[in-house]
Each structure stands twice: as structure tokens, then as C-alpha cells.
């Protein structure tokens, strides 16, 4: 029923067909803006939902005039903006979208909470794409490897969605990337050092994810060893590590018990030593009084030496407890005694004890190329909008967002 007069059946015609398929795949009749003109008389769509009828999808006008669409004179499409349109799909966008790949430079589907699925591998076909917005949707899963081949992409905004997995080191290939906004997702792993290769970066947002601190040499060594192991060898090694961990825990418990018993034993030995010294001193002084006229210089020297020996006894140094002194174990900043907490809370705290920002990214900040770097920090690490030295998760960010620890109820759930 399409009445648009196409001059010739070419790429432009295929682009019009692709837009029609996208419209029906995303339940276009339910859109809150510029849906099919057939709805204009039903009353279900407000009259002002579209500036003009020729801007409605599937209208007889050129598809370059449809709302959110822009293109060339040959009817090929360069822009497709479907953001904030109440679209619905469980599989992202249909395969027909690839018909637009030769010319498409901008693809926005953001602010559509009912748009789900994952970014497909065919995203790698859009080699002219410069801007991709999928933020504030229900799209998730891991990022396809093909995404990192889009060398012309300058803006990638995926924030407040449901993306998971790690960021590939291949991100260093996206040399034109200026804006990387991926906050408030479920990304994990280490932020790759290769991100520092993006010399044109101006803004990066990482907060609200599950990135872990960077441990360069250890991680590389573990990854190398794991790759070299077969499945059976890996299972065997895991079992050995579990046994070794159990043994170490046992040794720690024994050492702790011994440490708790040592002060009592030391105190007993200390008191016994003092008693022996006092008795020896009394006996010797009696002998001195008895022989005071005999000038027994050698005996006097022996007594003094005995007293000095007692003073120098290790049990009497400051490092040992005094008889009535309460034993207080020394606690360092990194190992403070704390009440037992849930595993989730422990994981959260350990994730903040290291710097999640690679040095290469901080280097861009120092060179004043990167202007905005946002990430997580401890809940109490903000003071008058300035980042204090207690921030562990970021050493060079321009803004950090306090990451609250999971509550007890949340941990139970």
C-alpha cells in the first residue's frame, strides 16, 4: 500500500523497506510519537504527537522526512533516532537494520525501557557509525567483539542499562572515541590499560559497575597459567588451592591461639624471674654484710652483674606485657578488627581497596586531554565536592560517586 513514488529501485528503496520492517518489529503502532498515519483518526493518538502528517512513519512522503530520520538526496539514510518513543522489542532491532549500514552515521534508541535483547554481532557492519546511544534501556548482555571494530565511532553511550561482562582490550582500536558513558550497568573485570590509547577521549563515566582493582603482573600471570592448563589440570589445581587455603587457615588459627596463650606464659616466667633475682640479691647482700670487712670485691661484682642481667632479660623489655597491663593487639589500618559481615559487603569493600582506573587513563588527565572522568569512591570520601586522599577506587577522577555498602537486609535477600 506504499504510494511513495520511488524514482528507481535502488539503495534508497531498500532503506525505506528497512525502516518499515523496523517500525513493525518495534510495535510502531504503539509509539507515543509519529506512529502510522492510519492512527490519526482513531483518537488513540493525540493530534499533536507529530508536527506534520508527512513526518509519520509509513506516510506516502519521502522516508527522509519521517520523524527521527535524516538522509541523502538519493533517499539513503544517515541518521535514525528512535529514542524516547515507547518502542518494544525483546531482540533489540531486526536484521534488516543492516541494510542501512553502508551510510548510517547515527543510531539512537535510548530512553526506551521496554527495548531489551543484546547488541548483535552485526553491529560491526556499521563502519561509518559515529554515534551509538542505547542508554536507559533494558538492553544487556556482553558487548559483541565486532563493536570494537567501529573505528569512526566518537560517542558510545550505554549507561543505565543492563550490560554485563568485561570491557575488551580491543577498545584501544576505537581511536576516534570521545565520549564513553557506560555507568550504572553490570560491567565486571578490569578496566583495560589499552583505553589510554584513545587520545581523543574527553569524557568517561564508569561508576555504578563492578570493576575490580588493577593487579597487573598477578592477573597476567594467572591468565597465562589458566590458558595453559587443561580442564582436568585446572580442576586438580583448584582442589589443591582449596586444600592449601584450608591448611593456611588452620595454621592461622593455631598461631592465634598460641599468641593468646603467650602473654600468660610470659607473665608467669617474668614473675618467677623477679622472685629468683630478689632471692639472689637478698642472699648476696647478707653475704656482703657478713664479710664487709674482708673487701670481697669479686663477690660484689658478681652481684651487680646478676642484677644487670635481670634488667636485660627479654621478658622485661617494653615489648612484653607488664603484670597488670591489659593485652591490646596492635591493629593496622588495612586490617582493623571489624564485626562479621556478609560476603556481599566484604566483596564490596575489597572492590574499593584498589585503584580501578588504569594509569594510562590518568595519564590522559595529566595531559589535559581527558576532561571528565567519573567513577566510584567510598561513601565518606566526599568533602565540599573535593575528593579526599581516602578515595581508593580512583586516583585521578574529576568526580566520584559514593558507593553505598549493601544493607543487612539487602545482603540477606
Task: Tell me about this structure.
The protein contains seven helices and 15 strands. By secondary structure, it is an alpha/beta fold. It has a nine-stranded mixed sheet with strand order 1-2-3-4-6-8-10-12-15, with no helix packed on it. It has a four-stranded parallel sheet with strand order 5-7-9-11, with no helix packed on it. The chain has a two-stranded antiparallel ribbon with strand order 13-14. A hairpin with a 2-residue loop joins strand 13 and strand 14 (386-387). Helix 3 (231-290) packs antiparallel against helix 4 (297-311).
H and E string: HEEEEEEEEEEEHHHHHEEEEH
Radius of gyration: 36 Å
Number of strands: 15
> In what range is the share of β-strand residues?
5-15%
What global shape is seen?
Answer: elongated
User: Mean pLDDT, as a whole number?
Assistant: 74
Fraction of residues in H or I helices: 25-40%
What structural class do helix, strand and pairing data support? alpha/beta
Q: Residue ranges: pLDDT <50 for 5 or more in a row?
A: 39-45, 287-342, 344-353, 379-392, 408-413
Properties at a glance:
disordered C terminus, single chain, 413 residues, four-stranded parallel beta sheet, alpha/beta
Element layout with pairings:
Layout: H1 11-25, E1 69-71, E2 77-81, E3 106-108, E4 131-133, E5 140-141, E6 155-157, E7 162-165, E8 179-181, E9 186-189, E10 203-205, E11 210-211, H2 216-228, H3 231-290, H4 297-311, H5 343-351, H6 359-366, E12 372-377, E13 382-383, E14 386-387, E15 399-402, H7 408-412
Parallel strand pairs: 2-3, 3-4, 4-6, 5-7, 6-8, 7-9, 8-10, 9-11, 10-12, 12-15
Antiparallel strand pairs: 1-2, 13-14
